Task: structure prediction
Amino acid sequence: MNPELLIASLYVFALAAFLGYQVISRVPPLLHTPLMSATNAISGISVVGALVIAGAHENHYTAWLGFIAVVLASANVVGGFMITDRMLKMFRKKDELKDVKKENAKK
Amino acid sequence: MSLYAVEITYLIAAILFVFGLKGLSHPDSARRGMILAAAGMAAAIVGTLFERAIVSYEWIVAGLVVGSLIGAAMSIWMPMTAMPQRTALSHAFGALAAALVGVAEYSLHGASMGRFRIGALGFEVMLGSLTFTGSMMAFSKLQGLMRGTPITYKGQNVVTSILLVVTVSSFIYLLINPSFAAAFYVMVCIAFLFGVLLVIPIGASDMPVVMSLLNSYAGLASAATGFVLANNVLIIAGTLDGFSGFILSILMCRAMNRSITNVLFGAFGAYVADTGVAETGTMREVGLEDVAIQLAYARQVVFVPGYGMATAQAQFAVRDLGDALEHHGVTVKYAIHPVAGRMPGHMNVLLAEANVPYSSLYEMEQINPELPRTDVAVVIGANDVVNPEARDNPKSPIAGMPIIECDRSKSVVVLKRGKGKGFSGLENPLFFKPNTGMLYGDAKTSLSQLVQEVQKVR
Result:
């Protein structure tokens, strides 16, 4: 790896860290559980690394490792986004809940 | 598709991830934000499929399908009370994926890697491996496969330190001589072992900190993968995840007035000596009818849930009681301590699941000034987070931990399974106060009975 690339990567890291600090400090404790599952889903982006290794198929050993990594990371991506949405759907305002209760009463 | 096109999808993904997390600053914008982030993820994955290095698609497609099915199944059927376990598992998955990618990279290009890449690879594999086993241990503790109390043995810190030294020295050796594969595999194996030893001495009540830390490590392992592969979207997403976990760990530690080192190496639950003042008073047991009348004629009632509410699955019963009281014109609020439960925000999710509007959920700082004006504080399966010893007794093991000051409210009702001490084994003076009533029994049953009694009150 050449030095320019290294420095550029370090810049990206430092700026992402700063940005992460700013954005995540604003998340209220109310949403800390969804935050954890959301960041988990997002860091499942490592699936792209796994895809390249599984798809390049250099030898059976690495293809298997890549395959397992694809399974694990995509489980995190799909599962993480789905459960985050399932949780966020539950956080409702009072008037929204009244509508829900009325609907339930009709049934 | 050209290289630029793939890179552009990554850039879009990175931007959408940040927007997604920004959406989480308010419940109203959160879902939309997450849809953006998911769209970014889809773009990045589709973009990667056009990567030139990819020659065969069978493995990839099979992997994506199997993984998506596992993930979907886990998120559809997982009960909300099991969120901490699910989160521990997903930390384990993410970390293992990063570690496996690292091992594959090493076996392909390890010998020809420069010092910097091998360094990043070392971090990736080390963090990935120890987070994997550490998260599996956390999972076993949360799931009850393993006892939740800290597991300690003589010379524990010495053993852990030796392993740390061995791992770090093999890492350094690898930096000097990247083609020496034995050093790499020794490092991996010991990192796996290290993760186990890191988590077993930590008690279940400290899980919010452990979960946050493992979250942070799993993220940093992904970021290190980004350095190895020179992939910016991986660096960004991993760093966001890593910092999110880091911030949460700090918040959790602050909510317990402890340092991270103390949580990791203190073996909190191992405190046998209770430095608290020996309580001589008696606990006053109260009956259902009395509590029902007390609640129905109150002006303001504050519920303080703890992990006990989750184990009793009592969140729906709590909401029913809250509704019945509101029907009587009582103002009902819910007070959430930051470390109540087994992961950050655990209680909020459970109560939201039971259709408690989020405007009724109050943070500790918001509710404490209101407690002196509160007629009844109802403590449901919480103990340490309402223990006045933390505030009053500087010698107490939990001294300085901010608490929900139930003892300042006009009266307190404590729902508790039995007469025993709490998880930490500390005596709680709140239970002995003259205006505290103890209601023993399963929280869910007691609460449902209270609902019926309250409805009888005219």
In short: Chain B touches chain A through 111 residues (CB under 8 Å). Confidence is low (pLDDT under 50) at residues 268-276 of chain B. The CA atoms of residues 416 and 440 of chain B lie 5 Å apart.
